């Protein structure tokens, strides 16, 4: 068996920053720390921090007044920020700057009285946060069919924004339909689908034809990981999204010569390496890593972390 190992894969700059931020908080303040929602959408990462004592909450009512609360990489709405202030929580914002960029665009266009069409997945943490910035001005669409249901006129001021982790191709189908119906609709100043999402999808598209089967390391609730698996399926390949090697099924490999492996932006390298070791031990796999694009993006830790640290000094 041969394994084609995609590069880039796994952690993006936003996820790296959020995890480093939480690790730094633990070093500085101990594990009595609360995180609003999963710090990143990955079971391994969340279970690791939970086992250390970090508490992930879905409601701020679960957080005692005065506690330290981290906002996850996916961002939060202004309503949550206001509630946290009211509860006197010491907040640290680990929102990815590329998600914040979409929030700021939403605020800017809402102030300028645009109707904003947000392309994204209903119920995703990032979409909830972005919509919360200007709920009166934002309409969510997921598919080209949703665009057909819109009731704006040609004269309305319209702009579209997108969730950062969409399938580039699927988003383009929605954008095309928007432009057909509303030729004057404006685009975001810079692409909203982030570099990490785009690069990981590009790698799968480049390499998948050389493989019989695609394994994507990532959790089921990770939007960008799911999109990677869907690309494999759309190319007519067997494709599975798995959290780790324990989910591998021997029957997947019965007639397979080449396996492609990648990982979503929230999946740690350790789960990739575990899989590779398993395939080497069980099937004598040889590994070929192929780089389709170089990545060198990094984000600084949130300023609130430095402020809280300086209060302790
Ligand atoms: S996937 Fe993109 S937007 Fe999401 S955390 Fe990573 S870099 Fe930021």
TrEMBL record:
Entries under CDD domains matching the protein: lytB_ispH (cd13944)
Residue positions binding isopentenyl diphosphate: 41, 74, 124, 222-224, 266
Positions with a binding annotation for [4Fe-4S] cluster: 12, 96, 194
Record's catalysed reaction(s): dimethylallyl diphosphate + 2 oxidized [2Fe-2S]-[ferredoxin] + H2O = (2E)-4-hydroxy-3-methylbut-2-enyl diphosphate + 2 reduced [2Fe-2S]-[ferredoxin] + 2 H(+); isopentenyl diphosphate + 2 oxidized [2Fe-2S]-[ferredoxin] + H2O = (2E)-4-hydroxy-3-methylbut-2-enyl diphosphate + 2 reduced [2Fe-2S]-[ferredoxin] + 2 H(+)
UniProtKB keywords: 4Fe-4S, Iron, Iron-sulfur, Isoprene biosynthesis, Metal-binding, Oxidoreductase
Cofactors: [4Fe-4S] cluster
UniProt signal peptide: none
Entry binding sites for dimethylallyl diphosphate: 41, 74, 124, 222-224, 266
Metal-binding as UniProt keyword: yes
UniProt remark on cofactor binding: Binds 1 [4Fe-4S] cluster per subunit.
Transmembrane segments: none
Catalytic site positions: 126 (proton donor)
EC number: 1.17.7.4
Pathway: Isoprenoid biosynthesis; isopentenyl diphosphate biosynthesis via DXP pathway; isopentenyl diphosphate from 1-deoxy-D-xylulose 5-phosphate: step 6/6; Isoprenoid biosynthesis; dimethylallyl diphosphate biosynthesis; dimethylallyl diphosphate from (2E)-4-hydroxy-3-methylbutenyl diphosphate: step 1/1
InterPro entries: LytB/IspH (IPR003451)
GO molecular function, one term: 4-hydroxy-3-methylbut-2-enyl diphosphate reductase activity
Binding site for (2E)-4-hydroxy-3-methylbut-2-enyl diphosphate: 41, 74, 124, 164, 222-224, 266
GO biological-process terms attached to the record: dimethylallyl diphosphate biosynthetic process; isopentenyl diphosphate biosynthetic process, methylerythritol 4-phosphate pathway; terpenoid biosynthetic process
Entries under NCBIfam families matching the protein: ispH_lytB (TIGR00216), PRK01045.1-2 (NF002188), PRK01045.1-4 (NF002190)
Family recorded in the similarity comment: Belongs to the IspH family.
Function: Catalyzes the conversion of 1-hydroxy-2-methyl-2-(E)-butenyl 4-diphosphate (HMBPP) into a mixture of isopentenyl diphosphate (IPP) and dimethylallyl diphosphate (DMAPP). Acts in the terminal step of the DOXP/MEP pathway for isoprenoid precursor biosynthesis.
UniProt name for this protein: 4-hydroxy-3-methylbut-2-enyl diphosphate reductase
Organism of derivation: Thalassoglobus polymorphus
Classification of source organism: Bacteria, Pseudomonadati, Planctomycetota, Planctomycetia, Planctomycetales
């Amino acid at each position: 068996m041969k394994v084609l190992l995609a590069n880039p894969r796994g952690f993006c700059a936003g996820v790296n920053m959020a995890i480093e931020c939480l690790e730094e908080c633990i070093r500085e303040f101990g594990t009595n720390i609360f995180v609003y929602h999963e710090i990143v959408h990955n079971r391994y990462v969340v279970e690791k921090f939970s086992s250390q004592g970090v508490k992930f909450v879905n409601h701020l009512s679960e957080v005692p007044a005065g506690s330290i609360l981290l906002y996850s990489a996916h961002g939060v709405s202004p309503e949550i920020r206001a509630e946290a202030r009211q509860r006197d929580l010491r907040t640290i914002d680990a929102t990815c700057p590329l998600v914040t960029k979409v929030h700021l665009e939403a605020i800017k266009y809402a102030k300028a009285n645009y109707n904003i069409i947000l392309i994204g997945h209903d119920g995703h943490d990032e979409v909830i946060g972005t919509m919360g910035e200007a709920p009166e001005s934002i309409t969510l669409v997921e598919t080209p069919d949703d665009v057909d249901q819109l009731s704006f006129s040609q004269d309305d001021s319209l702009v579209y924004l997108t969730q950062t982790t969409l399938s580039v191709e699927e988003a383009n189908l929605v954008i095309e339909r928007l432009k057909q119906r509303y030729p004057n609709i404006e685009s975001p100043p810079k692409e909203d689908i982030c570099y990490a999402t785009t690069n990981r999808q590009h790698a799968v598209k480049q390499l998948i034809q050389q493989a019989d089967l695609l394994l994507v390391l990532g959790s089921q609730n990770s939007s960008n990981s799911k999109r990677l698996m869907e690309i494999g399926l759309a190319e007519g390949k067997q494709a599975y999204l798995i959290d780790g090697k324990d989910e591998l099924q021997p029957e997947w490999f019965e007639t397979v010569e080449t396996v492609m492996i990648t990982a979503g932006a929230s999946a740690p390298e350790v789960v990739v390496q575990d899989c590779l070791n398993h395939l080497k031990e069980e099937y004598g796999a040889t590994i070929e890593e192929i780089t389709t694009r170089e990545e060198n993006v990094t984000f600084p830790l949130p300023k609130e972390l430095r402020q809280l640290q300086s209060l302790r000094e």
